[in-house]
Amino acid sequence: IEVILKLFSKNGLQDLFDNAKIDSSTSDNSKRILALQEEYIKTIDAVIAFLQGKNPTLALQICQEDFLPEGSRFAQLEELDWAFGTMGTQDKAKHLATLYLEDISDFIVECVDANFGFSRYAERLGRSANSFDELYEALQEEPTYIDKVLLSILIDRIEAILPTLFLISVPFPGNLYSAFRCAQWVKKNYPNIKISMGGGFPNTELRSLSDVRVFEFFDFITLDDGEMPIEELINVITSSVSSQAQSWDEKQYKRTLLLENGRVVYKNNSIKPDYKQSQVGTPDYSDLLLDKYISVIEIVNPMHRMWSDGRWNKLTMAHGCYWGKCTFCDISLDYVKIYEPVAANLLCDRIEEMIAQTGENGFHFVDEAAPPALMRALSLEILRRKLAVTWWTNIRFEKSFTKDLCLLLKASGCIAVSGGLEVASDRLLKLIDKGVTVEQVAKVTRNFTEAGVMVHSYLMYGYPSQTVQETVDSLEMVRQLFEVGVLQSGFWHQFAMTAHSPVGMYPEKYGVIKETEVI
């Protein structure tokens, strides 16, 4: 958020336009944006304040549609009255302001830094974990314009805190390049600071890591649940300071990759157990810049906006997945395999703590799949405590979601659910071992919709053995679900084979041939 706010400011845009590279191949859209640079510089601070919720009256001006400079994103503007009516001024303005920021983003990608993206950066370099070569080569280049903005903020943080241990979480491929850039700068300028990487990306993609060059940037990579591995790292680092003579073998590590004698080794010699979900405590938001985040509406859809609009406190009802069979999923890894629910009364305690700390009563339960019985218990506890909360979560379209249960969830503050329909074909659902049928999904989505709970569906195409006709039939099935109004939103993802899913581990069962095994 700090990088975005530095870029999208009066001074940031002025500097951006000054550094833009324009030539004969530059698109008309970017030339138009450059020609309108004074309008962008004049309006940017007011628009960002509006998207931070600090300047609501600006909505009236934005909706006049002659206040914001317009690039090609506005060309796809639909008739907005159907979406926002004549009264939805704030939402309509938020959508227009989002298009305005996306225009500037298009300009940055074409004329300043091709790797730029709002929520991801240089994602292409992190997509394949088969080889480190391309990413390593990119890191030998001079820092890009966006890199320099990022590093200027990092420098201030490091110099203010001077940590002994620097932890970088890499949840997605789009975070990988920047993580390495940050680690590279710290290693060069503060070689005494130990750096560790954790998060979803290394947990799934770097388990078989063998390339020693990664450890030019990082000292450690920890896998799976991070609390105990990090606690042991702190013990190692503090004991190293006090006793340099201690051998590596005596040091206790929990699921940690490191470099030893010029080789990448995996250490898991700690006998301390992982913390139970009841012991990990309530997430602490005290150092987040909660008043600085921006809310955007990219797509005019009441369900889809929930990923980017408003602020949601994050909690988990249960660690892992209670189903744990889907063949496209990393069911062999601990983050899915180890199922451990949290008691409803403890969840409600955490909800109340977070409301008190953040002042926000919106919650997104980020479960692999929230268990219906626990959702029922949580709803009853919320109602018993008379809490006013708004929440949504990820589910499986289980037959357990009866009309009565959906009404109970709605009464407790549940406004939406998202779930995997995946392929809308009974043959493929069986092959995936999804444990649901298309008919069952239709009934469950109807139960939710009739209770007033919005439904988003995850879908995929390209699953092994899926035919073109099945893909067309799947599209038609989803079209019908939309037409009868039991699905409010859907998103199609291309199937990606992961190494730790049944398809990845036993490809021959699914008629798949791997191109490479190198990691």
Structural class: alpha/beta
List the uncertain runs: none
Q: Give the amount of beta strand, in percent.
A: 5-15%
- The gyration radius over C-alpha positions equals 25 Å
Sheet with the most strands, sense and barrel status: 6 strands, parallel
Alpha plus pi helix count: 21
Number of strands: 13
Proportion of residues in helical segments: 40-55%
Shape: globular
Lateral strand order in the biggest sheet: 6-9-10-11-12-13
Tell me, rounded to a whole number, the average pLDDT. Answer: 91
Straight-line N-to-C gap: 32 Å
Question: Would you mind describing this structure in some detail?
Answer:
- The protein has helices spanning 2-7, 10-18, 28-35, 37-51, 58-62, 81-84, 89-111, 123-127, 133-140, 145-161, 176-189, 200-205, 227-242, 334-337, 344-358, 372-384, 403-411, 426-432, 438-451, 468-483, 502-505; strands at 165-169, 194-198, 220-222, 256-260, 263-267, 313-315, 318-319, 340-341, 362-365, 390-395, 414-422, 454-461, 489-494.
- It contains 21 helices and 13 strands.
- Strands 6-9-10-11-12-13 form a 6-stranded parallel sheet.
- 42% of the residues lie in helices and 12% in strands.
- The longest helix is centred in the first third of the chain and has 23 residues, at 89-111.
- By secondary structure, it is α/β, with parallel strands linked by helices.
- Helix 3 packs across helix 7 and helix 17 (403-411) packs across helix 19 (438-451).
- The radius of gyration is 25 Å and the shape is globular.
